[in-house]
Design a protein that fits this description.
The structure is a single chain. By secondary structure, this protein is α/β, with parallel strands linked by helices. The protein has 2 domains: 156 residues, Aspartate Aminotransferase, domain 1, CATH 3.90.1150.10; 225 residues, Aspartate Aminotransferase, domain 2 (3-Layer(aba) Sandwich). The chain is 43% helix and 12% strand. It contains 15 helices and 12 strands. The strands form 3 sheets. Strands 2-8-7-6-5-3-4 form a 7-stranded mixed sheet, with helices on both faces. Strands 9-12-11 form a 3-stranded antiparallel sheet. The protein has a two-stranded parallel sheet with strand order 1-10. The chain starts with 14 loop residues before the first helix and ends with a helix. It is an enzyme of class 2 (transferase).
Length: 405
């Protein structure tokens, strides 16, 4: 008798979480490990948000809430979307979940039938394809690369659409590349999508972490017709350094939200009542801490990219958003030392081999690009202090210099 369901045969554990766990284990053993793996800000949650959570507990707001979220948090989300994005929604079009990942999971479980296709631009966030597979959908991967700024073109999108296409995933700024689409980029995609019977999922989780005055734009913001065909997913984890609070939200078609509510009601029920109170304070309260974190991320962005560009065999573009660098290391793959490693280890993924050696011998945790659908690169989160960035990149440089021999 097979104990595990067959649906899990097509799903892998999250590589980012696995690498972060291994790095933390090595740190606990006393090693000086620099962790570029975790996709979370290193800042504490702003004080006014924590105070709102304490107040909620003191007021006895420790009971079940409606499955899809408290009325007051939904009001805060509605106000945020209208004020900041020009998107108007009713309460029955909003759902709150235990993190953006659960909202995304519930969306696909509520919308996909077996064999439905989902277009996913690569490099992509590690969980997109596996969640689609769990919902019995078929991921259709469309590759981009450093030459295109890691952005899917209208021509690529048009070519990928088939009669089975149900959903297109749009993520800007992007995890893992930090790429962000301009308004004209989004308008070109909308021109393809608007006439089609396709739902666009807009993952906006890094919306507020965007640099150089670039305007944030998602497909729903282009036209009313496109808004009606777009499901927006966002949360408080990245912008407000609230990863552990586990609050995400979705906005879109009321029928989809109703069925997501049913899914959630039979799994987790409501998100934490205390976390919902904190999220409400995050969205409605002082936004100064967001600007301060963005300023620090911007400084780190320039630091890490500048240092990476000094390493032989490494090519790194400047990300427009999020807090990730996604350097191409194909030049390293041609080095004599790396070729010897390939012959010795017999690893099919070059980026995984690079990251395994980097952690085991140089005490630096990075995520192999293969986890995001691009084996030519590695992902480095720069959500850590300047000194750690300098130390970690210096170790990467040392590894590359060793591989040149």
């Amino acid at each position: 008798m097979k104990l595990v369901a067959k649906r899990l045969d097509v799903v892998e554990p999250s590589p980012t979480l696995a690498i972060t766990a291994k790095a933390n284990q090595l740190k606990a053993s006393g090693l000086d490990v620099v962790g570029f793996g975790a996709g979370e800000p290193d800042f504490d949650t702003p004080t006014h948000i924590k105070e709102a959570a304490k107040k909620a507990m003191d007021q006895g707001k420790t009971k079940y809430t409606p499955v899809s979220g408290t009325v007051s948090l939904k009001d805060a989300i509605i106000k945020k979307l209208e004020t900041e994005n020009g998107l108007k929604y009713e309460k029955n079009q909003i759902i709150v979940g235990t993190g953006g990942k659960q909202v995304l999971y519930n969306f696909f479980m509520a919308t996909l039938n077996s064999g439905d296709e989902v277009i996913i631009p690569a490099p992509y966030w590690v969980s997109y394809a596996d969640i689609v597979r769990l919902a019995e959908g078929i991921p259709v991967i469309v590759s981009t690369d450093i030459s295109s700024g890691f952005k899917i073109t209208a021509e690529q999108l048009e070519k990928a659409i088939t009669p089975k296409t149900k959903v297109f995933i749009f993520n800007s700024p992007s995890n893992p590349t930090g790429a962000a689409y301009t308004r004209s980029d989004v308008e070109a995609l909308v021109k393809v999508l608007e006439p089609k019977d396709i739902i666009t999922v807009s993952d906006d989780i890094y919306e507020k972490i965007i640099y150089d005055g670039l305007e944030f734009v998602n497909p729903a913001m282009i036209s009313h017709k496109m808004k009606e065909k777009t499901f927006v997913i966002n949360g408080v984890s990245k912008a407000y350094s609230m990863t552990g609070w586990r609050i995400g939200y979705g906005a879109g078609n009321a029928e989809i939200v109703k069925n997501m509510d049913t899914m959630q009601g039979q799994s987790t029920s409501n998100a934490s009542s205390i976390s919902q109170a904190a999220a409400e304070a995050a969205l409605s309260g002082d936004q100064t801490p967001v600007a301060e974190m963005l300023k620090a991320f911007d400084k780190r962005r320039k630091l890490i990219v500048g240092l990476l560009r000094e390493i032989p065999g490494v090519e790194c573009r400047m990300p427009e958003g999020a807090f990730y660098a996604f350097p191409y290391i194909t030049g390293v793959y041609e080095m004599p030392g790396f070729k010897r490693l390939l012959a010795e280890k017999k690893e099919s993924s070059y980026s995984k081999l690079f990251c395994d050696v980097l952690l085991d011998k140089y005490n630096v945790a990075a995520v192999p690009g293969i986890a995001f659908g691009d084996d030519k690169a590695i992902r480095l989160s720069y959500a850590l202090g300047d000194k750690d960035i300098e130390k970690g990149v210096a170790r990467i440089k040392q590894m590359v210099e060793d591989l040149q021999k």
